[in-house]
Each structure stands twice: as C-alpha cells, then as structure tokens.
Amino acid sequence: MTPVKLYTPKPEKVYFFGTCLVDLFYPEAGLDAIRLLEREGIEVLFPEDQTCCGQPAFTSGYQQEARAVAAAQLSLFPESWPIVVPSGSCGGMMRTHYPQLFAGTELEERANEVARRVYELTEFLVHVCHLKLDDRGTPEKVAMHTSCSARREMGLADTGPALLSQLGKVELVEQARAAECCGFGGTFAVRHPEVSAAMVEDKTAAIVEAGAQRFVTSDCGCMMNIGGRFEQQKAPVQGEHIASYLWRRTS
Amino acid sequence: MSEQTSGVYTYSPRQFHRQAHDALGNPQIRANFRKAMDGLMTKRRESFGDWELETLRELGANIRMRALAKLPDLLEQLEANCEANGIKVHWAEDGEQACRIIREICESHGATSVVKGKSMVSEEMHLNAHLEEAGIEALESDLGEYLVQLNEQTPSHIIMPAIHLNTDEISEILHEKTGTERTRDVDTMTAAARSQLRERFMNADVGVSGVNFAVAETGTLCLVENEGNGRMTTTVPPVHVAVTGIEKVVEHLRDVPPLYALLSRSATGQHVTTYFNMISSPRKEGEHDGPKEVHLVLVDNGRSNIYQDDELLDTLRCIRCGACMNHCPVYTRVGGHTYGTTYPGPIGSILSPHLMGLEETKDLPTASSLCGACGEVCPVKIPIPDLLVRLRRESVGEGRGNVPGAGIKRTRKEAAAWKGFQWLATHPAAWRIGTSMAGRFKALMPSKLGVWTEYRTAPKPAATTLHALVKKHQAAKPRVDKSDKERR
Amino acid sequence: MSARDAILKRLRERTDGPLSAPESDFAVVTHRGWSGQERLERFERWIASVHGEVVHTSRKGWTEALARVLADKGVRRLALGKQHPVAAEARQALVDTEVELVDVNRDIEAWQREQFESVDAGLTSTLGGIAETGSLWLWPTPDEPRLISLVPSIHVAVLDADTLEDTLFDVVEKHGWANGMPTNALLISGPSKTADIEQTLAYGVHGPRELVVLLRHASAAPGDEK
Asked: Are B70 and C21 inside 8 Å of each other by CB?
C-alpha cells in the first residue's frame, strides 16, 4: 500500500505543482510553499501550463476525462527534478493513480516516471530538505489535520506533525479521532452533503475540545471543509495551510 | 427487487439519502453506532498488539488470492471430499435456487421448524421469508439475530446484527415479544434468551448455518463463533444444512489458522473466538450425537460474474469480518440499515452492486469519502477505495460495462460538465483566464453546490490566482541560486 | 446444463484469463520458539482473559482436584465417558461421592431433554492446547460425544501440560490434521459468550457458563507446580 520511498539528496531545482484548489482559493499557501523551498536554496520551477491533476473527474468515475487532464500534466515536467505538491490528495493522485490510469497506454512509462518524482510538500521538507525551523511566532495551541490521502494513500501521517513540533512556541494538541476523515472527499461533500456535514461537525467539535486555537492542514480540500464549518459557526478557530503557517512563523 | 423490511419501514438502497437523513437525525442511532464503532476499533488495535500485522495481512491476502486462482478446481475438490465424507453437496445459481434446495431438504424430512446459526448468505437470499412462505418457521439463534428477528428487522452489521439497539431497547423487545420481565441487567436478558432458544434447539427439525471457511483438501466446513449457537445448530437437529458463497473455499487446512487469526481480531478485536467448529461429516456409525445428514449448498448469486474481471475479483477475497464498516466514518454516522442491503458499509458498497445491480445501488459507491480507512484495516487487503472508484466508473458508463446496470447513473448534464472540465483543464491559457475570472469556476462544480453552504461558508475564490502570484513573485526578485541562498 | 456445470464453466472460461496462484509463506504463524514454561504462562494468561478457569494439578492427584471443583460448584450430575483414561479415572474417584455419573455413550435421541435439563456439568479429555490463544483442542468421540462440552452449564476439561503447542498452525501441521479429519474437530477458548447486547459481555448465552481446565503436570503435586 504505502510504497517505500527512497529519498534523494536535496536537489538544485524542483517543479512545483500548485493544484487547482490552491490556484483558485488559497494561492498564498502555494506561494508560501514556494518561499519555503526557495529559502532552502532550491530553485522552484512553476510550469505555467499546469491546471488540475484530474482527480475530481477520476474519483467521480469520469475516467476518460481524468486521463485526458492527467495526460496534459504529464508533459509539464520534462527534466528529472522532483515534483513537489502541496496536497496529499493531489500528490496521492499523481503518485498512486497516474500509473493505474495510464497502465497499458503509450503514456504508461512516462506516468510511472512522473509518479516516482512526486513528493507531498511536508514529505519533501522533512525527508529531502531536512528542514530546520526557527519559530518567531507567539505561543499558540494548534491541532494538525492530516488529510486521509496524505495519511493513508501516501503514508505521511507524521511529516506534518514533525514540522510543527519544531516550532518552539507551538503546542501541538491532538484532537479525538485525529485519523478520521473530515468529510470532504471531493465530490462526496456535494453528493452526500448531510453525511459529510455530520462528519465535519464532529471534526470541528473535536478540534475545539482539544483546546486548539487554530488548525493546520496540508490539504486545501480539508481546509475548505473544516474552515468553512468553523466560519459558519462563527467559531474563533482559524484554519491555515501548513505552508503558510510555517512561513509566517519563521520569516 | 430485494428490499429489507423492518418494523418501522422498508429499507432500500434506492432510498439511501432519505435513510441517511433519518439516521443522522436520530440521536439514539448516532450514539449507539459511535460508541460501538469506537469500542471495536480500539479492541482491534489492541488485539493485534505485538503481532506482525502487515505480514499476517499479506499472508491472508495471499491465501485468498491463491484460493481464487484455483477456484473451480478447489470447488470440485471440496465437493469430492465432502461427498466422500458423507456430506451432500448442492449448487445454486442464485438465491432463489438456493432457497428452493433448502426448502426441499426441509420438506423431504417433513420439517416445520428450522433453527439458524448466523449466515449472511441466507440473509442475502432471503431464506427466512422463503421458508415461511412454505410454512416452515425459521428461527435465528445468534442472540443478536434473534433480537433483530423479534423486532422484525434485519441485521445492521454483519458481525454484530443488533448493534443499532441499546440495552433499554432490547429489554423492551424481549418484554414485548417474549414476556421477559423488563430489566437493564444483561445477564438476566441473556439467560432469558438462553432458555427460550434451548427449547427451540431441542425441537428443531433442521439446522441451517453459514460457513466461514470451506477446506477443499479435507472437505471440512469451519464455523467461527462465540455463543455456541452455531455448535447447537450444527449438532442438535437431525439435519444440518450449511449454506455458503462459492468464494469461501480455501485450498489447505493450513490456510485456515492465519485467516482465523485475522478474522477474529479484525471483527471484534478478540485474539480468538470461543468456538472454532470444524465439521467434516455427518454422524458416523457408532457416534451418539450430531446430525445424521449434512448438506452443503454452494451459492453463486453473481459471484462468478465478479470472478471474470481481474480488478473486481478482489471483492471475492472478503472473509466477512466487518472491520471495514467498523472503521468507516460514513457507516459510523448512518448505521447499517441506511444502506438498505444485506451487506452494509464499504464491503457492501463494492459487493451489493453485483448482487442487486447498479440501478438499485447507484448511491452506494459514492457514499464514501474515499478516506481509505477500510482498505487500511482489511485483513485480506482488498483495495476497497479503488473498487469504489471502479464502480463509480461503471455507474457512469466509463468502466468495462460488466457490472449489472452499468451506465445507469450517466446523465447528459453531468457528462457535459466533466467534458467541459476536461476541455478547460487541457487548455491552459483558457484555464488561466477562467480561473482568474473565478466566478465561472462554479459552473464546473456538481450542481448541488448549494447544499455545501447549508453547513459551511462557501469557499471564496481568491482575488489573484497562484499562477498570477507566481508570475509577480518571479518578476519581483532575481532567480535564486546557491550563492544567494542566505539572501533572505 | 446443471447449476454446478454452469458455475464451473463460467469460472473456468474466465474473461480475463487464467489466474496464477501465489505461494504462501507461513512463517508468521509458526516458529514461536517458546519454552515449556512460556507456553504454559501464555496459555493460562489467554484462557483466563476469556473467563476460563485454570486449576493446576498433577497426573496422579488430578481426580482430587476434580472432586473439589465439582463440590465447589455444586455439581450433582456429571456427564462423562467411560473408556478414555480421564473418564475411567474420574469414575473410579467419584464412585463414592455425592456426584451422580451420567453415561454419555447412548444415542442423544434417547436422552436429549435429560442432557439439556438435568446435567450440571460435562467432563471431557482434550487432545492438547494452544499457547498463543489459550485454546483447547478436542476431537469428540463416541466415548465423549460432541454435546457434552456444549450443553451442560459447566464444562470441565482435562489438559496435560506437555500437550501444549505454540500455535494453531503448529497443531494442524504437527498432528497431520490434513491426513484425516474427524466428524467434528473443536477449538474451545473459554465459556460461551456474547456481546450482542450493547457490547456488554455475558457468559453462557447458549453453551456453558463456566469452563474449568484441569491442567495436569507430569510430576509435581497439585498446588505446588511452577
């Protein structure tokens, strides 16, 4: 299931695949991720023609459409640099499902090659950059919500918390049932809105009960969901993408 | 088609949304499931403790894959060995035929009373209703199944059938249906059920059970249980009929210990169940108890169709432990009846479409956030999330078309929306213009975005896209190279 | 075509072609390498965790332990075999006690209600035990039929310490189960139980409420083993 990944030394350059949710709703998170990478002395290449990894169509069963969209992304990374994605969901799509999607097609080899180069952002910061952080923020209690794709599909339950634990003034609190899904699930939230709402309701309650003033996540889908629920409740808990949080507290 | 009845109303997978709505609005149901699932998840985790869980799961998957690879040969071997041991083997194409076979066995013995051990296949084929139509009473003897039957319901979980009921509700059921005095004492209620059911075991003409593993090399039927009702059912009545799906066969006896270890731990977090009952023949000459006749009914009911396809095949690895539902955040919220199928939860959502067709079950493959918890705990490593996506493909007509009802969910409107998405996402210049005028993006989202905002504020497209921000960012500063790494 | 032939034909003429069968590595369910002492401790810990009661005794003095257990539990009618040494020795030891011995070597049809309603306990031998799970291994015989370990409220099982194996897999392999299975083979781990009423454990739902294991050690006297 979780592939064993052998991590390369820190490269000179990386490709950055921003994802459509970041592009459209949380562009600052994308830029902060780029800044974090640049601060490590890495040149960040942002292929201008990137759009979406194709996952929404893929998980909705629209296989041909997903394949067409994914195929368009495959040609964006011609050199052998790692591809950093600030999302476990899109990262999981590219690493796990691209090879399945193109199996038996003429793009199979390229899909496999691209998949091998895909890193989720926190994974890359921890395992390749060996990032060291110097916290300049004020004391705060924070809960981390690791997306299900990062946790299960990519096997990255620990990288987000590992980064947060370097922030000296941040107290990382663990919400009850931390590993349980927040209820986003892409089109699940709109196909089964009531079930999804019950799930996000429990998630926000757990974060509040843990005493967190803020939740941090590495996936914008979860942020949109959990944050949107908090906002509607007019709860004081704020959500932030981990890239922005790390950049903000250490710059 | 097959609909599940209850005292309250009829459950059907077609009504998933309505049933989910009702369950979500029922605090008792919510609390009962949450408490039970939390307990089961904790117990499972603890029970594997120092075990090499991943190695064991690997072996479990491997044993099941081997059995499926040799399935036709193993079924023939099982049949030959059972027959040699004196067990009569029957084959049924579907549930209807299996019901008929069992009814005829009952009738040939003039049976009027059947006692049943837990069998999900018998639920799948609606055996009780079939027998009752023929004037044969079928009584469930597993305590949970007994309670559910008294309450005129169907099981809400494949391992813990009465998990949707709490102590007070059960007390009321026993009082109303059997005259047992109301009590909150579980031992008292259990003792009452014991005495009621013992009388029935003694008087039953036929015992019907399921099978957990059927061993081809020895012709042995293995039953896993805690209560002892399975042993009663398979030992006390003069005739025993075991009914099972054709996929339950394993090759060797030595394949059983790993699967049994996985099953008991995954299902209820027990390191072992109270009884492991292995039946290889009817009562032999000189033996003093046990049934004089044992029958095995092998049921296909869509399984051989699943078997045709390399990807769907994995569905048949299932050993029916229920761990996927115990860990499913959707099942935990809505409970088992909401699915309206014999098998609820993630395994139900990948199995039911084959048994009932996608027309009936089209809402089930989407009733998952694809969080992956089911696949993570599955003791035989069924890639449940991948299979859910596969069935979504079949639903919208972009799969192989080999699942009954394929394409049923495709609508012109939705297909056009995804084609639109495809066009935009493969035309980067248009994408950049489109996203920078973000309002238009809404048109791409599935039509029901409205409901999102019942529970959450709407996501607000940012004033500037990442594309634009990056452009500005790159223009504002010189290219970073190694020498000015500390520039900041 | 019969259902049988039609099903087998579909399975054989599989659309995606024949499947290849993987080999299995069973290392994870064997080779525990426990000492006799470790086996004993594990067996006892696990069977106790599921409400099984272990009474240590010796090969020589075990019937005294049996008599004490029966007296403590108020057993008046005990069902047991005749030929197996366990049954024979028990009969000899109990002949002058209050306990009435109930013969089980008769067809159940002749005494079903009696067995269900007026037998307090069943005594059986065992063929061995499993340390990893705290399980007893029984192959019922005409001398000790299937139901005496199930129907009476108390099941007293006699287990020799030196017959413990590490795992179920070891039992199946070492004792060559695949070469010939009996009518009924049983593993028993504790008394009958259910958690079907709101996850609350209750014992004796259908089968015995109590399981007592008389664990016989080769040499030492009862009470001073280990």
From this structure: yes
